[in-house]
Write a structure and sequence with these properties.
The chain is mostly beta strands and about 180 residues long. The chain has strands at about 5, 20, 25-30, 45, 55-60, 65-70, 80-85, 95-100, 105-110, 115-120, 125-130, 135-140, 150, 170-175, 180. A 4-stranded antiparallel sheet has the order 5-6-7-8, with no helix packed on it. It has a 4-stranded antiparallel sheet with strand order 9-10-11-12, with no helix packed on it. The protein is globular and about 50 Å long.
């Protein structure tokens, strides 16, 4: 890209508690000439007045936006999802797919397997189907977790034989940024 871009974040008051998009799903840092943060023509406001959105992920095949929210219940401490392709003015409230988190913060999707992985500041790691069903607690009381990443690690072997399949597992960062990854065979 020839100009710096951001995808979402609290850069100015207008972005706090709001998820935004432009025609290229990014907001240009350079302000269009003659416009202000409040009246930008290159920004479409998707949702406003959200409790405290933290992490975003997209299921590109289903064209769904997922986000964690650490704000107050009933809409906060949740994972929400909403379709990306609904026209302005016709968007309903995002669907809550996962609730009762303790300051929900981290989110990673595994669209091929139909799963999401979620962390909270209470130190728990959860998984669920993308629609929120089949919720499982994977770990508890690990300390303050600030995020999670999902990595599909393929098994490798020496020689020409095929790689042995491995179960997919979430990879996470602990509160100090140390990479933790567990692979089960």
């Amino acid at each position: 890209m020839d100009r710096p871009c951001i995808t979402w974040g609290p850069l100015e008051k207008i972005f706090i508690g709001a998820i935004v998009t432009s025609c290229e799903d990014e907001v240009r840092i350079t302000m269009p000439e003659g416009e202000t943060a409040a009246n930008r023509s290159d920004v479409e406001l998707l949702y406003d007045g959200l409790p405290e959105p933290v992490d975003l992920d997209i299921d590109p095949g289903a064209r769904m936006l997922y986000r964690t929210d650490r704000g107050d219940p009933p809409r906060g401490n949740t994972v929400n999802r909403a379709p990306l392709d609904v026209s302005a003015g016709k968007r309903g409230a995002p669907e809550i797919g996962f609730d009762h988190l303790m300051e929900g913060i981290g989110l990673a999707l595994e669209p091929r397997g139909g799963r999401m992985f979620v962390t909270d500041l209470g130190g728990s790691i959860y998984s669920a189907n993308l629609d929120g069903t089949n919720r499982q607690t994977l770990q508890i009381a690990l300390g303050n977790l600030s995020g999670i990443a999902y990595v599909d690690v393929a098994a490798t072997s020496g020689g020409a034989s095929a790689a042995a399949p491995q179960k997919r597992t979430p990879a996470q960062n602990d509160s100090c940024g140390t990479r933790i990854s567990k692979t089960r065979q």
